Every structure is written in structure tokens, then in C-alpha cells.
Input
Amino acid sequence: MQAVVYRGRNRLRVEDVPDPKIEQPRDAIVRITLTTICGTDIHLVNGTIPGMKKGTILGHECVGVIEDLGEEITNLSRGDRVVVLSTIACGRCDACKKGHFAHCLETPVAPGTYFFGSPAEAGSLNGMQADFVRVPFADVGCVKIPDALDDVAALAASDIMPTAFFGLDRLELEEGQNVVILGAGPVGQMAVAGAHRAGCAKIIVVDREESRLDCANRFPEVETVDYSSWFGPVKEVLAKTGGQGADAVLDCVGVDASSPWGFHDPGRAIQWASEIVRPEGRFGIIGIYPEVLDSVPLGVFLEKNISITGGNCNHKAFIDDCLAFLVEHPEEGREVFTHRAPLADMPDAYDAFVAKKDGMIKCLLLPETSPALKKEEAVAAVPSL
Output
């Protein structure tokens, strides 16, 4: 099969590699219909997140069709159309029973998070930017896609939508409150949809990319702030909240944050959040933060009695809600997929994703064997890279 293989820092190759096989009785082999690139993949390739092993297949988001099943899988059949969850969980241990799927106790990295296309610390499990993928604990990690839902919309349920809904859930948003979303990338766009569903009176979205701000501005309660002005977004955001600050702030940026002048500044989103959130408010972090920060304004958060939350998404806990939401609002899943490319063009697609070429938010990747190349109307509607 073809796969995108990590060959060293900032080095990717599309290679012919052996097809995966059933190794455990709860495994499944999935023929991948659609996959995509995540910001986490970029961190892994450029070394911001260390520990990638040469030869690891990248990618942790896909939809596909069940090709083969281990003998203990009873809730799936060959030919089922499924979304594959980014993180792996057994569904039976004490952590999983509590809904803490990101810290399953039966994975090789327990109690850490085990995910596809990952560095050594997270298991180095081969990922989904390939023709096929082996899915451990597939009776938990492969979820049937409703017949009414197309593959493009369903792909959002593999990672970005559960992650956003997880972050919003931890913020405990109430109807009529205001929320600030830092970062209007793919996860930020899903957070906009979730905050709209939660009945927020005002959703303030902060970014510097015009295409992302335009996409976020799809609901009447959304107000956007381009932080590339000389003084950043704080003054403007506070004005939009009547000077009181936001009830909640969700950081969907993480270590990718930059200053208004465009320089990389990994602590910038946290600094702005400390100034934007109101006293007794809530701050959630679902952006990625490797160990690169020199300081965090904890004193400000403590002085303001801020509740801080976030972390790694418990995907299994949110997948049913995400799929039900997407059946009713498939456009919210499709919205972020602005471009498509063959899997064989993955290195060029990576470069375009990093550069946000032509307003790219997220790129569909199609294996040569994908049935979506011929029959998926939703795929055809996405412009080629």
C-alpha cells in the first residue's frame, strides 16, 4: 500500500509499505476513504513535538470501510462505513468506564494518550495517511457512519469536532454567555459551531487569517477580531464584552501562536486569555503545548479566580453527539475542508497547509484506491489543491 512516512525532521515520503494485518482479536483493518492533515502532524514533522521514529506512518484522522476484523469484534461487519477515532481506548478498564478514554489503562503507553501516527511517548502507532490502517480495540475506535451522512462531513468527527466539543464541555458554557475562541483553524471552527449550538449570546473569534475569520463569521452572534493590528486583540475584545471580559476563553491555538507582527510566540494565546477572561471566568486549553513555555501568567489567573481546564480529548465520549449533530448540520463538518489532493501529493499538501495557501483551512487527502474518487459528490465539491 501507499503511505506517508516520516523520514526525519521536515522529511516526508510517500512510500510503498506492507499492508497492515490483524494482530489482536479486537483489531480491524480499515480501507481508508478520506484522510487529512492536522496541526499536530506539523508539530511532529518539524520537531516541535519530539520523539518521532523514522518509518512511522503519519496521520490520525480518517473515514473508511471495514476490510477485515478480529475474531472478537461483534458490533462491526466487513463493508461497514466507519469513522476512526484519533485516540485508542479499550472501553472496559476503570478509566474508560469513567469516560476517561484518553487515559485508557490497557494501552502500551498507559496512562498516557495512545494515538495514531504518534511519537514514541504516545506509542509510535502507524497512522492513517495511507491506503489502510490497523485499528486496535476497533469495537470502540471504529464507529459506524449514519447512512444520511457523507464521508466529508463525517471526517470532522474523527478528531477536530470531538476535540472542540470536549473543550466547550469543560468550560460549562451556559445559554446567553459570551465566549472568546482564540484561533479560527479547523478546531476553532468546530468550536464556533458548538458555541452556537450552546446558545452563546456572543462568540468572539480571534485570528489573523482572513479566510478563517470569514469562515467563522457564519452565525449572527459571531464577531471577529483580526489580531494583526499593532496592539493585538485585547482592547478590541474587551470592548466587545462591555469592558467586563469574557465569561469563557477557549485556546485552540497552542504553541502555534504568534505576535501581532507575525513572530512565533508560543505563550501569546495564554497571555491574551489572562487579560480577556473576566474575574470568576473560565479558561480552556485544547491547543497543543509541548514543553516550550518559559512562563505562564498564573498569578493573573489566580488573582482573578479563573478556573482553568482542557487537555486531551476523550473522543469516544463525544462521538455519538458529534455524528448526531452532523446528520442535522453536515455543512458544519464540510465547512473546513477547503481543498483536496491525492495522497501521493502529500508533501506538497503539507507545505500548502503550513503556508495556508489560497486560504486553506484543511485539506482532504484521497488514497488512489478511495471509492470517494468516483462516487462521493461531497468530495467533488471541494476544490483541488
User: Anything to note?
Assistant: The two ends are 23 Å apart (CA to CA). The mean pLDDT is 94.
